[in-house]
């Protein structure tokens, strides 16, 4: 909120929220155990909930602890103490994923049975949003093997199309086992954190701070997909390992860095910035910058005898691609409508790609009804994106703003 109010140029609100934040920090010791961990809650009479090993309410509450590390509420020393305590409790991660608590709560309004039984839902069940923050905490502290184990476990669910949330049985099974496949958007959180944790990305009103957390075994890392920084795109590369010793942006020396971080002021960062971060004794390398994929790259239809639904989607590819080209030519390539068009094209291509991989045996069919459900999900996603785009463009016909009307006019001119 402080940074948002800075962007909005509201100094009074900046002062207000800064004061509130500082007061909250002053109160944190009251919510901290002797070993530096945060409790779950504090009763008005002083009874603490979430002091591990206490005769009453003696469980460990994970969320405030991994969040304090992930979001830098705790300093480095306290963060390491929290991690050591967390890592000393195998019951918190019986299947590599973090649980919200261990052992069971003794202070719920409900009896610990059914939905409230330990390991099922909020009492000891696994939540991917918590895992995402746990992964960020791993990166901050350099616990890369923990992050790797988490991702490997997640992939066992992804490969079976069982990306459900929450996970029951202490993180070992899906919440909806009777569905043919599962997909809950929460489960994309850990994968996003696995990427975000590499550079941490501290966004502020005046710029972006990158804090590299690169495993020592990686001599070189290139991010092929851009990171969004307002209207700008960043392509990040690291060479070597150890402290930051030099930085180049689009081939030019960059001076805004120290041994642990790189700062990119928004007004000084190029619209497309290839950031090369040299670690330790690494030397810069020319000609290795990542190149963004063209939004108009050709769609290769490799599927043999596509079904009627996929064939119907193919009829939309030509007009959509031409629409995107004309939007870019008109300076509208960064609009939500252009992104919508590109996403629809990508999803049609992905549906083809999946069918091609199945036909060539490069991926195995899922067992039983899961295969048909998975195939259908690819088609439905592309169909819904096309239907949604039609609705957006239709609404633009009567829009009062100039940009939607211009986009609609461009669409009408595209041969269908």
Overall description:
The chain is α+β, with helices and mostly antiparallel strands and 416 residues long. It has 4 domains: 1-31; 38-196, no CATH class; 208-279, Maltose phosphorylase, domain 3 (Sandwich), CATH 2.60.420; 308-413, no CATH class. The protein is built from 11 helices and 17 strands. It has helices at 2-7, 11-27, 63-70, 76-87, 128-140, 144-158, 189-196, 308-329, 336-359, 369-396, 402-413; strands spanning 41-42, 48-49, 60-61, 101-102, 162-163, 167-168, 173-174, 182-183, 202-203, 207-210, 220-222, 227-229, 232-240, 244-249, 252-253, 262-265, 272-279. Helix 3 (63-70) packs antiparallel against helix 4 (76-87), helix 3 crosses helix 5 and helix 5 packs parallel to helix 7 (189-196). The two termini are 47 Å apart.
* β-strand amount: 5-15%
Structural class: alpha+beta
Gap from first CA to last CA: 47 Å
Q: Summarize model confidence as the mean pLDDT.
A: 94
N to C succession of SSEs: HHEEEHHEHHEEEEHEEEEEEEEEHHHH
Give Rg in angstroms: 25 Å
Instruction: Give the helix proportion (percent range).
Output: 25-40%
**How many β strands by DSSP?**
17
């Amino acid at each position: 909120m402080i940074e948002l109010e800075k962007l909005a140029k509201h100094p009074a609100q900046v002062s207000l929220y800064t004061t509130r934040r500082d007061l909250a920090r002053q109160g944190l010791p009251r919510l901290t155990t002797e070993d530096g961990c945060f409790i779950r809650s504090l009763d008005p009479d002083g009874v603490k909930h979430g002091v591990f090993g206490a005769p009453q309410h003696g469980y460990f509450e994970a969320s405030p602890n991994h969040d304090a590390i992930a979001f830098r509420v705790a300093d480095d020393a306290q963060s390491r103490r929290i991690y050591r305590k967390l890592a000393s409790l195998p019951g918190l991660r019986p299947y590599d994923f973090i649980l919200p608590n261990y052992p069971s709560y003794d202070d719920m309004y409900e009896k610990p049975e059914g939905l409230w039984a330990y390991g099922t839902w909020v009492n000891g069940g696994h939540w991917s949003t918590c895992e995402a923050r746990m992964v960020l905490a791993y990166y901050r502290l350099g616990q890369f093997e923990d992050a790797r184990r988490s991702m490997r476990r997640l992939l066992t669910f992804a490969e079976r199309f069982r990306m459900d949330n929450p996970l029951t049985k202490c993180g070992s099974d899906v919440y909806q086992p009777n569905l043919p496949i599962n997909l809950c958007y929460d489960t994309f959180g850990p994968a996003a954190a696995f990427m975000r944790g590499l550079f941490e990305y501290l966004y502020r009103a005046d710029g972006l701070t990158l804090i590299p957390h690169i495993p020592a075994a990686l001599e070189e890392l290139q991010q092929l997909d851009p990171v969004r920084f307002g209207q700008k795109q960043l392509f990040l590369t690291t060479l070597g390992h150890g402290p930051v010793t030099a930085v180049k942006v689009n081939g030019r020396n960059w001076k805004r860095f120290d041994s642990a971080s790189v700062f990119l002021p928004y007004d000084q960062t190029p619209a497309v910035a290839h950031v090369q971060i040299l670690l330790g004794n690494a030397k810069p390398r020319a000609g290795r910058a990542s190149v963004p994929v063209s939004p108009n790259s050709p769609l290769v239809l490799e599927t043999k005898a596509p079904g009627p639904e996929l064939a119907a989607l193919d009829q939309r590819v030509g007009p959509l691609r031409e629409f995107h080209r004309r939007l870019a030519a008109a300076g509208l390539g960064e609009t939500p409508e252009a992104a919508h068009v590109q996403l629809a094209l990508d999803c049609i291509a992905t549906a083809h790609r999946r069918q091609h991989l199945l036909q060539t045996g490069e991926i195995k069919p899922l067992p039983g009804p899961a295969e048909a459900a998975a195939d259908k999900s690819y088609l439905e996603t592309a169909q819904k994106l096309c239907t949604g785009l039609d609705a957006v463009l239709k609404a633009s016909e009567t829009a009062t703003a100039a940009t939607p009307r211009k986009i609609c006019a461009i669409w009408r001119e595209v041969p269908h």
